[in-house]
Amino acid sequence: MSSSQDVRASGALLTSTARITVNLGFKPAHVEAVNSANVTQIWWNAGMPDDSMIRASGAANPTYLTSSGIKLVDDGTNIGFSIGPDTQFTGVAGNQVFWTAIRGNDPK
């Protein structure tokens, strides 16, 4: 059995009122991101449905969202993921988001 290493990518983006696409060149098995302006974090992994995510903000308990979340993208131009327009995560347009994506051994 051969072994493979995880492929990681990270970066920063600015929030928008629309879905934001991140082109990685691979489909991730895990995505984490944090909005530095409103200190909100999101997580998604390949066991979760597309467009879902876990969101944690402030002292509130984390919330499982089934829409406006993270979707895998493979549209012929971009291969990666997109973050939906969840207003609690994105805040106002122009907030800075730091993200990390991991390909893993068995991505979708």
Explain this structure.
The protein is 4% helix and 49% strand. The chain is mostly beta strands and 108 residues long. It has an eight-stranded antiparallel sheet with strand order 1-8-3-4-5-6-7-2.
The backbone outline, from C-alpha atoms, is: globular
Measure the end-to-end span: 21 Å
Care to count the β-strands?
Answer: 8
The multimeric state of the shown protein is single chain
From the structure above, extract its key features.
108 residues; mainly beta
Summary, kept brief:
The protein is mainly beta and 108 residues long. The protein has 1 helix and 8 strands; from the N terminus they run βββββββαβ.
How do the helices and strands line up, and which of them pair or pack?
Blueprint: E1 8-14, E2 20-23, E3 30-35, E4 40-45, E5 52-57, E6 63-74, E7 79-83, H1 87-90, E8 96-102
Antiparallel strand pairs: 1-8, 2-7, 3-4, 3-8, 4-5, 5-6, 6-7
